[in-house]
Amino acid sequence: MDNETYPLLTAVDARVLGCLLEKAATTPDAYPLTLNSLLLACNQKSNRQPVVEYDEETVLESIDDLRKAKLVFRVDVAGSRVAKYRHNIDEHLGLDKAGKALLTVLLLRGAQTLGELRTRCERMHSFATTDEVEATLNEISEDVDRPLWTQLPRSPGKKELRYQHLLSGEPAAAETENAGDQAVVHTPSPLSSRDARIQELETTVETLQSELNELKAAFENFQKQFQ
């Protein structure tokens, strides 16, 4: 990856790219994504940190930036007026399934421990142990020209180290809330495997419903041509 041709991602860019990576792995039948499906993916309340409420204009601006960086491609399907979008991370990084799963979760959930990464990657790639997660992070770091993630300094009162992606640049100081002399670090609780599966199914239903609505609209436009 070339630093001169690969710009740092904004927070919105990271969310959009992370969503494309996630859906390519978890809902391949509904991928590439339409703008509406991508908007739903960005704004979903499960498997996201922080939860956001982007509008279409915000996502479109990010798509434009990512296309200029050649990280996202527009896909025009013959006979359809609905554009779709896919990521181009494979060409830039050449990550395997495990590497893409780790990058995806870091883009969508921010800094996380090895245990959180292992749990949250389960839908895309299964790691047997946290040691395997750590080994994969280290191996990929050695193989790429530009670091993709970094190990954060240990937070006060915390035993486990956290990792954060570097596609948006070096991480800022950990967000803390001072309560007297004690620093409190806000860390999201990991989902159970059952909850993760339920939430993924809910997201899939939302995506399929969006696709169905767009197909209905396209068919109605097609019918109007013969009226």
TrEMBL record:
SUPFAM superfamilies: Winged helix' DNA-binding domain
Pfam families tied to this protein: DUF480 (PF04337)
TM region(s), chain numbering: none
Region: Disordered, residue numbers: 174-193
InterPro entries the UniProt entry points to: DUF480, WH-like_DNA-bd_sf, WH_DNA-bd_sf
Cited HAMAP family: UPF0502 (MF_01584)
Family according to the record: Belongs to the UPF0502 family.
Record PANTHER family: UPF0502 PROTEIN YCEH
UniProt-recorded name of the protein: YceH family protein
Organism: Thalassobacterium sedimentorum
